[in-house]
Automatic annotation (TrEMBL):
Residues 284-382 form the PDZ domain. GO terms for molecular function: serine-type endopeptidase activity. This is Serine protease. InterPro entries: Chloro_Bact_Ser_Proteases (IPR051201), PDZ (IPR001478), PDZ_sf (IPR036034), Peptidase_S1_PA (IPR009003), Peptidase_S1C (IPR001940). One of its GO terms (biological process) is proteolysis. The chain crosses the membrane at residues 21-40.
Length: 395
C-alpha cells in the first residue's frame, strides 16, 4: 500500500434519498413565496412611468449690464478742452528762397479761458521754447496759428492766444490743489509721443502732494530752482507736457510737466499744482510776464567751493557748512544799497535758513513782492552780520 495515499475502501449499506429531497424542495419553495409576498407589500403604489431627463432650457438673450464710470464721465466732459501744441522753427526752403516751417516738437495744452473772440491755452514753457511759430491742434483735427501771450521759464508755464475754432471745444475749470489727498484718483489727458496719440487718457492716483524737483535753468549742471509739484502714477510721457491732470470732479488740479525716466523706474510723473499755476497764468494773460522781486545778486552754493576756500578765501567759522556765496552784486541794486559785497555768504533771509541758491530764490519769489523789505543774515571775514534791503522789481 502506498504510504502517501490512504483511502477508506470499506463498504457501507445504501439508503434511499428520494423522500428527504422532496420534502426539502417543498419547504424551500414555501419560504421563497413568503419572502416575495412581504417584499411586494412594501413597494409603493404603481404610478405613471418616470420621464426621461431633459437638458436645461437654453438661456434667454444676452443679459443687459449697465456700467456707470465716473472716469468715463469726466473724460467725456473734458477731453475737448485739451489741445495739441506744435513747436515750429523757421528754416530756409531747400528748393525755394524762402523760409519753411520745421517741426521741432509737440506737446499739449489746456483751454482755460475764453473772452468771446479768442481762447487762452496753458502749456509748459519748455514746449514752446525756441519756437519760430506755434500752432494749436483742436480736437476735430483743425489747426490754427497761435500767439505766445507770455512765457515764464522759472515756473515752466506759458500762455498761448488763439482764435476760437468752428468745432467744439471746452474751457476747463481749475480745482483746489491744496485740498488734494494722497490716494485720490488722478486722470491725465494729453498727447504722448506726438499728435498720433492725441488726447490719450491715463488713470492713476495722487502719489504725493508736496514734492520739489530740481531745475537747472542755466544748463550748467547746477540747481537754480526747486519747482513744487504734485506726484502721480498716471502715465505721463513725452508729449503729455502741458496737458491736464484732473480730479474726479473734472477740475484741473495740475499741469503735466515731467517724469522720472530711468531704467527700472515706473509711474513717477509730476504736474505743476493748479494753485501755483493759476496766478502765474493770470499774470501772463494780463501783463505778458510774471513780476518778481529783485535783489540784484549772483550766487553759488557754498558746497560748490572747496574746504580750503571756506577757511582761507571766505574765512568762515568751522560750524558754517551751508549758505549762498555772492559772486556778483549789481551796482545800484537793492543788495548793493544794503551794503552787501562779493564773497559775502548769506545764511538766512528773514530768519529762514538759505542752504542753497534754489532755496533763496524760492523764498524771495514766493514770499516777497517788489517793495517789501527783507532782513539778510550773512558772514563776512568770519563775522556774522545783518542787513536790510528793500526789494525792487526784476527787469
Amino acid at each position: 500500500m502506498d504510504p502517501y495515499r490512504v483511502f477508506d475502501d470499506r463498504r457501507r449499506p445504501r439508503r434511499s434519498g428520494f423522500w428527504p429531497a422532496l420534502f426539502g424542495a417543498a419547504l424551500g419553495a414555501a419560504v421563497a413565496v413568503a419572502v416575495m409576498a412581504a417584499a411586494l407589500e412594501r413597494l409603493p403604489a404603481p404610478g405613471p412611468a418616470p420621464m426621461a431627463p431633459r437638458e436645461a432650457p437654453a438661456a434667454p438673450s444676452p443679459m443687459r449690464v449697465e456700467v456707470t464710470s465716473a472716469v468715463s464721465d469726466v473724460v467725456e466732459r473734458t477731453e475737448s478742452g485739451v489741445v495739441g501744441v506744435v513747436n515750429l522753427a523757421e528754416q530756409p526752403g531747400f528748393w525755394e528762397r524762402r523760409t519753411a516751417p520745421l517741426l521741432q516738437g509737440t506737446g499739449s495744452g489746456i483751454i482755460f479761458a475764453d473772452d468771446g473772440r479768442t481762447l487762452f491755452v496753458a502749456t509748459n514753457h519748455h514746449v514752446i521754447e525756441g519756437a519760430g511759430a506755434v500752432e494749436v491742434v483742436f480736437p476735430d483735427g483743425s489747426r490754427a496759428p497761435a500767439t505766445v501771450r507770455g512765457a515764464d521759464r522759472l515756473s515752466d508755464l506759458a500762455v498761448l492766444q488763439v482764435s476760437r475754432p468752428a468745432g467744439p471745444y471746452a474751457v476747463l475749470p481749475f480745482g483746489d490743489s491744496d485740498r488734494l489727498r494722497v490716494g485720490e484718483p488722478a486722470i491725465a489727458i494729453g498727447n504722448p509721443l506726438g499728435l498720433e496719440y492725441s488726447r490719450t487718457v491715463t488713470v492713476g492716483v495722487i502719489s504725493a502732494t508736496n514734492r520739489s524737483i530740481p531745475v537747472d535753468l542755466a544748463g550748467d549742471g547746477h540747481v537754480d530752482w526747486e519747482l513744487d509739484v504734485v506726484q502721480t502714477d498716471a502715465a505721463i510721457n513725452p508729449g503729455n507736457s502741458g496737458g491736464a491732470l484732473l480730479n474726479i470732479a473734472g477740475q484741473v488740479i495740475g499741469i503735466s510737466s515731467a517724469k522720472i525716466s530711468d531704467v527700472g523706474v515706473e509711474g513717477i510723473g509730476f504736474a505743476i499744482p493748479s494753485n501755483f499755476a493759476r496766478p502765474v497764468l493770470q499774470a501772463l494773460v494780463t501783463a505778458g510776464r510774471v513780476v518778481r522781486p529783485y535783489l540784484g545778486i549772483g550766487v553759488k552754493d557754498l558746497q560748490e567751493f572747496s574746504s580750503d576756500d571756506w577757511a582761507t578765501t571766505l574765512r568762515l567759522p568751522r560750524g558754517v557748512t551751508e549758505g549762498v556765496v555772492l559772486v556778483d552784486v549789481a551796482p545800484g541794486s537793492p543788495a548793493a544799497g544794503a551794503g552787501l559785497k562779493e564773497l559775502d555768504v548769506i545764511v538766512a533771509l528773514d530768519g529762514q535758513p538759505t542752504p542753497t541758491g534754489a532755496v533763496l530764490r524760492k523764498w524771495l519769489y514766493t514770499k516777497k513782492r517788489p517793495g517789501d523789505a527783507v532782513k539778510i543774515a550773512f558772514f563776512r571775514d568770519g563775522v556774522r552780520r545783518e542787513a536790510t534791503a528793500v526789494l525792487g522789481t526784476m527787469p
